[in-house]
C-alpha cells in the first residue's frame, strides 16, 4: 500500500506538465515592459500639457485602466494574459482586467450580485490589504518621525 | 533614456512576479496582494520613491506603484489635516484608478458579451 502510494506520487510527478518557466519569464518581461513603456508615453503626453510628474500620475492611471478595460471588453486582454502571465496581470491594465472580466462574465447572475459584486473579486483583496499596509506603514512613520 | 528604464524596470518587476507565481505556486490574486503590500512597505521606507524617480512609469504602472501611491497620499493628507489623513489619504490618492475601473467595468459588462 505504502509502496504503491510512493510509486503513484513518483508517476504523477513525472507526468505533470513542466511549467515552461524560462519562456514564461521572457514573455512576462516583453509584455510587461511594453505596457509600462506605453504608460511612460501617456505620462509624457500629460506632462506636455503642462502637468508635473505628480499631477500626471492620476490621469495616466485613468487612461491605462481605460485601455485595459476596452481590451478586456473586446476579449483581447485575457488572450494577452494567457501568453504574458504576470506581464499582463501586474501592470495597472491587468488590475482593470481583473475587475472588468469577472463583472462581464457574471452578468448572468444579475446586476447586483453578478456585476456589482464580481467587480471586486480580485480588486477587493488588493484594495483591502493595500489600504491596511499603507495605514500601518504610515502610522508607524507618523509615530516615529512626526510626519507620515 | 526614461523610456528604456520604464521598459526594463517594468519588465523586470513582471518577471519577478512571474517567478514567484511559478516557483511558490501562488495564484495571480495572491501575487497581486503581495506586490501591493510590498509597494506600500517600500513606499513607507522611502525606497520606492527613489525607484519611481528613476524608472517613471516602469515603477508606477505595475501594481506596487498602487501601494506606493496610497502611502504618498497619506503623507500629503497628514500634512494638510493631521492624523485624520491616515484614514483619508490612501483612497484620495488612488481614487482616479479605482473609480475609472469601476465605471469602465460597469460599462463593459453592459456593452460587451463575454467571449466563452
From TrEMBL, chain B:
Key words, A-Z: Membrane, Transmembrane, Transmembrane helix
Organism ancestry: Bacteria, Bacillati, Bacillota, Clostridia, Eubacteriales
Coiled coil: none
Transmembrane segments: 6-24, 31-51, 91-112
Alphabetical list of Pfam families matching this protein: SpoVAC_SpoVAEB
Full protein name: Stage V sporulation protein AE
Record-linked InterPro entries: Spore_V_AE, SpoVA
NCBIfam families recorded: spore_V_AE
Tree of life domain: Bacteria
Organism: Sulfobacillus acidophilus
Amino acid at each position: 500500500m505504502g509502496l504503491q502510494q510512493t510509486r503513484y506520487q513518483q508517476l504523477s510527478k513525472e507526468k505533470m506538465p513542466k511549467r515552461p518557466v524560462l519562456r514564461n519569464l521572457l514573455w512576462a518581461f516583453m509584455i510587461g515592459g511594453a505596457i509600462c513603456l506605453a504608460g511612460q508615453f501617456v505620462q509624457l503626453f500629460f506632462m506636455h500639457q503642462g502637468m508635473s510628474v505628480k499631477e500626471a500620475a492620476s490621469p495616466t492611471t485613468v487612461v491605462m485602466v481605460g485601455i485595459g478595460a476596452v481590451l478586456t471588453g473586446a476579449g483581447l486582454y485575457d488572450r494577452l494574459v494567457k501568453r504574458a502571465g504576470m506581464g499582463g496581470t501586474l501592470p495597472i491594465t491587468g488590475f482593470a482586467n481583473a475587475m472588468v472580466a469577472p463583472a462581464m462574465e457574471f452578468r448572468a447572475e444579475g446586476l447586483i450580485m453578478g456585476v456589482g459584486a464580481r467587480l471586486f473579486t480580485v480588486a477587493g483583496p488588493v484594495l483591502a490589504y493595500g489600504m491596511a499596509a499603507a495605514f500601518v506603514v504610515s502610522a508607524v512613520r507618523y509615530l516615529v518621525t512626526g510626519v507620515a | 533614456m526614461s523610456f528604456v528604464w520604464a521598459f526594463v524596470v517594468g519588465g523586470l518587476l513582471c518577471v519577478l512576479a512571474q517567478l514567484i507565481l511559478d516557483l511558490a505556486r501562488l495564484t495571480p490574486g495572491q501575487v497581486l496582494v503581495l506586490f501591493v503590500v510590498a509597494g506600500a512597505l517600500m513606499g513607507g521606507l522611502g525606497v520606492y520613491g527613489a525607484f519611481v524617480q528613476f524608472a517613471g512609469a516602469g515603477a508606477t504602472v505595475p501594481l506596487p506603484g498602487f501601494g506606493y501611491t496610497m502611502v504618498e497620499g497619506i503623507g500629503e493628507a497628514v500634512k494638510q489635516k493631521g492624523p485624520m489623513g491616515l484614514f483619508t489619504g490612501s483612497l484620495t490618492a488612488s481614487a482616479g484608478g479605482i473609480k475609472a475601473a469601476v465605471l469602465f467595468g460597469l460599462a463593459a459588462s453592459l456593452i460587451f458579451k463575454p467571449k466563452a
